[in-house]
């Protein structure tokens, strides 16, 4: 979000600015409309409105205008003063909200979510939350009680990175005294706009979820605002045209979230819709006409909402997440919506008032204030994180402790050896003996990957080697696969690379999943594409150990155990598994495939337990902890040796 007090532009003429001071009051109204769209769309229809794109454009507009004026007056970019202004305006409200999130986490979030929330608070405070979400492949609309209360800080992270990039970039142009700074700025921003927009279109088409949080795919929106700040004095349409532009822009902005599925097509060329709407409203300016959209945008209530828009954006999302967590709902009721709005507006008003009172004079004091506000956030999160880790290490009983179970994943994840959904490069990671007597390839999706700890232990004990070839949500199959209801082309490309790697590697045994467990109506299945892939491997001389998929729980086991205890956290095996494995019903199973089923160890007497003995079985609804998987190593080794014929 752009700094709320920065509404000055490069052209101070009364006809365009609306006041002799050169202020643009309609920008506060535009901010208000944008933030109201964000808040309403998040809480009610659970869509994305395009309002954040307007804020990005406004940030580029205001920051570029400010830098340009400084260069025109003094011939240079004043980095210290620039950083100090941003620090005292942006950091105190953000710090207050993050401290509030830490308090809300303690009060309302289950302990199983504390560690991840603390990690994201760090990312938010240090302005890299967008990259944290991108690498986690988080769905921004996956609100519900499982959403992070700070994931909306992704847009602030992009703006923070812009603040680091923009002044040095424009300072390089400003050193050439023979250049007109206005035209030089316009040229540089035009290049950034064109390059970033082209990248955004391509990246969005290839992997929209990554592009949504990618700074490179968003820079063009900020550059568009910057170009507008430079060019605005030369844009002088008639009053009638400006009146029309104002209403067209306002109508386009309000309708964007209704007509476009923003969360699935942005930020490519589709984001030109809301940013273009914002540009039209700014070009329209204060028309002086009784029929202009600016008459609406400059109404006092709307301008006040614009004034508190930064804090309102910061508060609305955590309030929404905490409401859903506390009530156990997946969507807000009518009364809930009203409550969320009232609390968000009240906190935004108080936060803005407190931040306005923090007005130290001097560059050094302003910068110090901003940094001092973040220190309690970082210190609290750091101490809390260390304490959680110490408690997990000290706590007897269940291993891993339920609060830390989500982190108890195969070593391959920490090593970066499981390919993410966005990429198709084959990552080949080897574990075990350098000169092995046997080589085992582990291939498939995350339900194949969670068998790694058992295989790794077996390999270490026998002088073997495990080669990890896994990718999120990409099972070993000839069928075109889908991810979150959409085509998954990176999986298809990855599989081609994997088959080429297997031809070269020629492992003694390939381990993968044999079925797909499912809690839905279709139940457990064995896709025909699995069998076709196994036959292809057989033609390559590769034997396969196909392990029946593990059950999927109807609840989050670590959270359930933390709240209700072990005895209450049991599920029916038949909920996600068939009475007889589909693999056992194959009429002509491939000769190179050995089938294995370990679910009797996870679900004794067909009851799937969250904790067996003193071991936490599940790290989430569908994945096994690395600790429990290592305990299965003897049983897994028996089946591996059977498949190897030894």
TrEMBL record:
Region (Disordered): 1-22
Record has Hydrolase as a keyword: yes
Domain of life: Bacteria
Single annotated GO MF: acyltransferase activity, transferring groups other than amino-acyl groups
Residues in SGNH domain copies: 425-637
UniProt-listed GO biological process terms: lipopolysaccharide biosynthetic process
Annotated Pfam families: Acyl_transf_3, SGNH
Residue span(s) of domain Acyltransferase: 26-349
One Gene Ontology cellular component: membrane
Sequence intervals crossing the membrane: 29-44, 50-69, 90-109, 153-175, 184-202, 217-235, 247-266, 272-292, 304-324, 336-355, 367-386
Keywords annotated in UniProt: Acyltransferase, Hydrolase, Membrane, Transferase, Transmembrane, Transmembrane helix
Protein name per UniProt: Peptidoglycan/LPS O-acetylase OafA/YrhL, contains acyltransferase and SGNH-hydrolase domains
Organism listed in the record: Streptosporangium canum
Lineage: Bacteria, Bacillati, Actinomycetota, Actinomycetes, Streptosporangiales
